[in-house]
Write a structure and sequence with these properties.
3 domains; 12% strand; 5-stranded antiparallel beta sheet; alpha+beta
C-alpha cells in the first residue's frame, strides 16, 4: 500500500474538513503516514507515546504495538473504511509504506464536564454525584457502586451519522431475562440518522408512545440507578447525555425521591402523601372551581359563595374562559422563565406572578379567586417534577370536561384516566403496581414506607430472577421483638 495513494484517498473522503491532520514520519527506517482529526487528538500523548517510540523502533524484541506507550490497546485493520471510522471517533491511524495492515491508536482527548451534583436532582442527604455527558465516566460511576461480576454493561452503536454509543446495564442474576431481551429487541429496531440525547431512545422503546405518562424513567444520579438495578430493572446509558433511562418505570416512582431512603420512614410517608395531595390539587382544583361556578354552586357554604360572587362580580369573562386564560398565562410565564437567562428568569417570575396578576385583578380583567386557584395548582405541579408537563395538560382537559358537565364531567374524565392507567404497561410490568393489581409485599415501599430491614424481598411488580434482597437476621428480629414487647 503506497502512502501517496492513501493520502489522496483520505483527502478525497475526509479532506473537506479543515481539522484533518496528515503528517509523515518513520517507523524505524520505514516511511509512514499518520492521520487524525486535530480537535480530537491528544498531541502530547501522540508525540511521547507513539511517534517518538516508533521512530526508534528496530523490530527486534517488540512488536510495533508493544513499542508504544499508549494506555489503550492498539488495534489493527486491513480496510480503509474501518480506519476512517476510527479517525472520526477520535483515534489516530498509522499507515506503513508497503504494508496492508493499518494500525489504530487511541490517543483521544476532548473537553468533558467534571462529575458534580446534578442541577435537577439536588439533595440534602445522600450522594451528590451526577452523570456527565461521557458514557465511560457514567459506566465507571455504576461500577464503583456495584462491584460485582454480575453487573453486565453491553455497548452498541446507533445513528448512521452520529454513531452514538448506547450501553445496556443490568445485573445478570437479578434482572429477568425476558426484560433484558425485550430491551435489546426494541433497541435493535432503531434506525435513525443520529442520536443526540437519551430522550431520542425513549421514543423508540416505550410501550405506548402516545400516552401522556412516561413509561421510561429518567435519572441523573448513579446511586439511584444502582438502586433500580438492584430491584431488577435495566438501565440505558447514552453517550452525550447525562440522563440515564431505567425500565420498567411505574407510576409510584413519580412520588418517590432518592432522599426518601436516607430519612426516617415516618417523615417519608408524610412527604409522599404531600406529593400525592399536591398532584391532586394540581389536577382537580381548577376543574372543581369551574364546575362549582358553572353548575354546582349550591354545594358551597353560603358565606364562601358570597365571597366568591363578590370577587368575580364585574369580570368580563365566563368562569371557564377565565380559568383557561389564567392557566395559559401561567404556562407562558413558566416557559419564559425557563428559557430566559437565570438572573433574568427570576425577575420575570416575580414580575409575571405578582405585578401582572395584581394588575389584572385590579383592572377587573381577572378575578382574584381564579388567580389564587391557578397559583395553588401550579405549586402542586412541582411537587411531582418529573410529570409537570403531563399534569399541566391534564388539568386543561379536566377544566374542559368540568365546563361541559360539571362535577359529573370531572368524574367521567377520572374514570377514563383510571382506565388508561390500569391498562398501561411498561416492559411487562403493570404501570399502576403495586396498587392495581395489588401486590401486598410491594406496599412496604408505597405511599406508606416501611423501614429498610422489613423490605426483605424485591418488588413483585418488577420481574426478577432473585426475589431475596435481605437475608433474615435473627438477632435483629429478636431485638426488634423485644423493643415491641417493651412498648
Amino acid at each position: 500500500m503506497k502512502l501517496n495513494e492513501i493520502r489522496r484517498k483520505l483527502l478525497s473522503d475526509l479532506g473537506e474538513s479543515s481539522d484533518l491532520t496528515l503528517f509523515e514520519g518513520k517507523v524505524g527506517e520505514t516511511p509512514c503516514l499518520y492521520a487524525a482529526f486535530e480537535v480530537l487528538l491528544d498531541k502530547e500523548l501522540l508525540e511521547s507515546g507513539v511517534i517518538r517510540p516508533l521512530a526508534q523502533y528496530q523490530g527486534e524484541k517488540k512488536t510495533l504495538a508493544e513499542a508504544t506507550y499508549t494506555v489503550a490497546p492498539v488495534k489493527k485493520t486491513k480496510t480503509l473504511s474501518e480506519a476512517e471510522k476510527e479517525i472520526c471517533e477520535g483515534g489516530t491511524a498509522l499507515f506503513l509504506e508497503g504494508e496492508k495492515e493499518i494500525y489504530l491508536f487511541s490517543v483521544k482527548k476532548w473537553e468533558r464536564r467534571s462529575v458534580s451534583e446534578p442541577p435537577t436532582s439536588s439533595v440534602l442527604k445522600g450522594p451528590r454525584e451526577g452523570f456527565t455527558e461521557d458514557i465511560n465516566v457514567n459506566t465507571s460511576l455504576l461500577r464503583r457502586r456495584l462491584r460485582d461480576k454480575h453487573l453486565v454493561i453491553r455497548e452498541r452503536k446507533f445513528g448512521r451519522y452520529s454513531d452514538t454509543a448506547v450501553a445496556v446495564c443490568y445485573l445478570s442474576n437479578v434482572a429477568a431475562k425476558e426484560t433484558v431481551d425485550l430491551v435489546n429487541e426494541r433497541l435493535s429496531h432503531i434506525d435513525i440518522d443520529g442520536i443526540i440525547d437519551s430522550s431520542y431512545v425513549t421514543k423508540f422503546i416505550e410501550d405506548d408512545p402516545d400516552s401522556l405518562f412516561p413509561q421510561v424513567g429518567s435519572l441523573e444520579k448513579p446511586d439511584v440507578v444502582a438502586a433500580k438495578l438492584l430491584e431488577g430493572r435495566v438501565a440505558i446509558l447514552v453517550d452525550g447525555s447525562p440522563i440515564a433511562l431505567t425500565v420498567p418505570h411505574l407510576l409510584i416512582e413519580s412520588f418517590q425521591d432518592s432522599q426518601d431512603y436516607f430519612k426516617r420512614n415516618s417523615r417519608v410517608t408524610v412527604t409522599r402523601f404531600l406529593r400525592l395531595f399536591g398532584a391532586m390539587i394540581a389536577l382537580f382544583l381548577p376543574a372543581v372551581f369551574v364546575a362549582v361556578q358553572e353548575f354546582q354552586y349550591q354545594i358551597l357554604p353560603l358565606k364562601f359563595l358570597i365571597t366568591i360572587l363578590n370577587s368575580t362580580n364585574g369580570t368580563p369573562l365566563s368562569p371557564t374562559l377565565e380559568m383557561v386564560l389564567v392557566l395559559i398565562i401561567f404556562d407562558i410565564l413558566n416557559e419564559a422563565s425557563v428559557r430566559m437567562p437565570r438572573y433574568v428568569g427570576m425577575a420575570l417570575s416575580i414580575v409575571g406572578a405578582i405585578v401582572l396578576g395584581e394588575t389584572a385583578v385590579s383592572a377587573g380583567l381577572l378575578s382574584s379567586p381564579a388567580v389564587l386557584v391557578t397559583a395553588l395548582s401550579s405549586i402542586g405541579l412541582y411537587l411531582v417534577p418529573d410529570d409537570v408537563g403531563t399534569y399541566s395538560l391534564l388539568r386543561l382537559v379536566f377544566v374542559a370536561t368540568a365546563a361541559l358537565l360539571g362535577i359529573l364531567g370531572i368524574l367521567f374524565a377520572v374514570a377514563l384516566l383510571t382506565r388508561h392507567l390500569v391498562t398501561l404497561q411498561s416492559f411487562g410490568s403493570d404501570y399502576t403496581s403495586p396498587y392495581a393489581p395489588l401486590a401486598e409485599g410491594d406496599l412496604k415501599d408505597g405511599f406508606v414506607k416501611r423501614e429498610l430491614p422489613d423490605m426483605t424481598r424485591r418488588p413483585k411488580s418488577i420481574k426478577n430472577q432473585n426475589a431475596t434482597r435481605i437475608k433474615k437476621n435473627t438477632a435483629l428480629e429478636k431485638r426488634l421483638g423485644e423493643a415491641d414487647d417493651e412498648a
